[in-house]
Structure formats: structure tokens, C-alpha cells
Design brief:
Belongs to the short-chain dehydrogenases/reductases (SDR) family. It is an enzyme of class 1 (oxidoreductase). Its EC number is 1.1.1.30. Helix 4 links the parallel strand 4 and strand 5. By secondary structure, the chain is an alpha/beta fold. The longest helix is centred in the middle third of the chain and has 29 residues. A seven-stranded parallel sheet has the order 3-2-1-4-5-6-7, sandwiched between helices. The protein has two domains: 203 residues, 3-Layer(aba) Sandwich (Rossmann fold); 37 residues, no CATH class. The structure holds nicotinamide-adenine-dinucleotide.
């Protein structure tokens, strides 16, 4: 259903972004991958999907401009823009390193502004576009010690609504997907340390720590997030715009 469409998916070398890239590619979209990682692994993903990869560091607006230009020159202007790259840092606000604050705001929020401002003119010209932002449950609620992440993700939610209003008559939708805990290597890697630090079993860490606020007691999978992203690309989803769609297993306010 996406034959002839070009999708730029940021942070697509692992986790949620990779699942979204795979799902969109399987429907025929031509993909521009972005993100860091082991060059051999990235090359494997790139060739598997017949995609291009651009290693732009999204904290740098000049590299974002290059990436969007390269996508436009080599694949076509993005019809589907998935802003998914994100980082986290956990620390009380009084000791939160200012450089971490700046990096989180740059990658998790400002990059979404830059890719959007650079991609939306061609979407409006074609009267078709899909902007899908991976926000987070933390775009709606807060946790302690995640001030930068929570601020950036609330910002993404607000930005998305504003863009949706601006593009409402142009066939361009803008939405957030807000997952709770998703099973990615990022989450998996926290388990052994937490087991040791709190003297808990693997099961206890999963249910009582990570899934404390996820009543289904089940991690969201990257493939579930990707399925929703694909639905948002369908023509039947054209009236879903400006929405912040939770996928958090009936998540409780934190
Ligand atoms: P991940 O670490 O597996 O993927 C992050 C991706 O972003 C990677 O491809 C990485 O290379 C890329 N990236 C990081 N810094 C970058 C930079 N400066 N420039 C370009 N690319 C960069 O994590 P994930 O869990 O798949 O997270 C993807 C998105 O989902 C993030 O925005 C995250 O905040 C959000 N999210 C994750 C969860 C979860 O539980 N895993 C929950 C809610 C929201």
C-alpha cells in the first residue's frame, strides 16, 4: 500500500525505528534509514531493506539539512516522515548535566522541528503527507529524574498538534504515538543491573519495577508500534491528525 512513497525514519538502526522501517519497506515504501551503530550491522539492515542510510547526528541542524537533501536527491522528497530517534538521561534536576539537557532537547525535540520544517513544503505541494512522531507515555505524564525527557516529549506532543492544524487542509497528517515500556535492547540491558542493585529476580524487575505502571504486565513490542505507524499511513487514517495515540497497556499516571 506504500508503493511509490518515500519514508524517512530517524533512529531506525535499532528498536522501534527499525521495526517501523521494516514494516513500511514491506509495504513497498522506499526507505531512508538514520541512526548510529556497528557499520556492518547497519549495512546488513540497509541491504535487507534495499534502503539508503544517512548517519546524520540529529543534534546538529546542518546534518539534518544534509540528510533531508540527500533523501530528496537520491530517493525523492519524504512523503512519510517518522521522527523516532531519542535518548534518555536519568538524574535529579539539580544535578542534571546541562550538556545532557541540551542533547536531549536537541535530539528528542528540536530535530523534530527541523525535519518537519524541511519536509512539509513538498508534502503540501503533493497534497499528501504523513508525519509520525514517536513521543512517549512521558508526553502525557511525568516521572521523577527524567526532567529533560519529559519536557522534550511534552514538547513533541504540542508541536505535533500545531503542525497538524497548519497542514489540516493539505492532506498532511501529523500524529504522535506514545508507547509505554517497549521491549528493545535499551530496556533489556537495564535488567541485569537492576537485579543486582535491588537484589531482585528477573521476574520481579520486569513486573514490579519496569512494568509497575503498565497494568497489562506485558511489554509493548516494536512491531505493535510499527503496525500503528503503518495504519496512520493508510488513506483510511486521513482524519486522524493532531492525535497523541497511547499504546501503554492501560498505563497508570506515573
Ligand atoms: P533505541 O536506543 O533502540 O533506538 C534509538 C535510535 O535513535 C537508534 O537508532 C539510535 O542510533 C538513534 N539515535 C540516538 N541518538 C541519535 C542522534 N544523535 N542522531 C541520530 N540518531 C540517533 O531506542 P528505542 O527504544 O527504539 O527508542 C526509539 C524512540 O522511542 C525514542 O524516541 C524513545 O524516546 C521512544 N520511546 C521508547 C520507549 C521504550 O520503552 N523503549 C518508550 C516510549 C518511547
Amino acid at each position: 500500500i506504500l508503493e511509490g512513497k518515500v519514508a524517512l525514519v530517524t533512529g531506525s538502526t535499532s528498536g522501534i525505528g527499525l521495526a517501523i522501517a521494516r514494516t513500511l519497506a514491506a509495504e513497498g515504501a522506499r526507505i531512508m534509514l538514520n541512526g548510529f551503530g556497528d557499520p556492518a550491522e547497519i549495512e546488513k539492515i540497509r541491504s535487507e531493506l534495499g534502503a539508503l542510510h544517512d548517519g546524520a547526528d540529529l543534534s546538529d541542524p546542518a546534518q539534518i539539512e544534509n540528510m533531508v537533501r540527500r533523501c530528496t536527491d537520491e530517493l525523492g522528497a519524504p512523503d512519510i516522515l517518522v521522527n523516532n530517534a531519542g535518548i534518555q538521561h536519568v538524574s535529579p534536576v539539580e544535578s542534571f548535566p546541562p550538556e545532557k539537557w541540551n542533547a536531549i532537547l536537541a535530539i528528542n525535540l528540536s530535530a523534530v522541528f527541523h525535519t518537519t520544517r524541511l519536509s512539509i513544503p513538498s508534502m503540501k505541494a503533493k497534497q499528501w503527507g504523513r508525519i509520525i512522531n514517536t513521543a512517549s507515555a512521558h508526553s502525557l505524564v511525568a516521572s521523577p529524574n527524567k526532567s529533560a525527557y519529559v519536557a522534550a516529549k511534552h514538547g513533541v506532543a504540542g508541536f505535533t498538534k500545531s503542525v497538524a492544524l497548519e497542514a489540516a487542509r493539505d492532506g498532511v497528517t501529523a500524529n504522535c504515538i506514545s508507547p509505554g515500556y517497549v521491549w528493545t535492547t535499551l530496556v533489556e540491558n537495564q535488567i541485569p543491573d537492576t537485579m543486582k542493585a535491588r537484589n531482585l529476580t528477573r521476574e520481579q524487575v520486569m513486573n514490579d519495577v519496569l512494568l509497575a505502571a503498565q497494568p497489562t504486565k506485558r511489554f509493548v513490542t516494536p512491531e505493535e508500534v510499527a503496525a500503528l505507524a503503518l495504519f496512520l499511513c493508510r488513506d483510511e487514517a486521513k482524519s486522524i491528525t493532531g492525535a497523541n495515540l497511547s499504546m501503554d497497556g492501560a498505563g497508570l499516571p506515573l
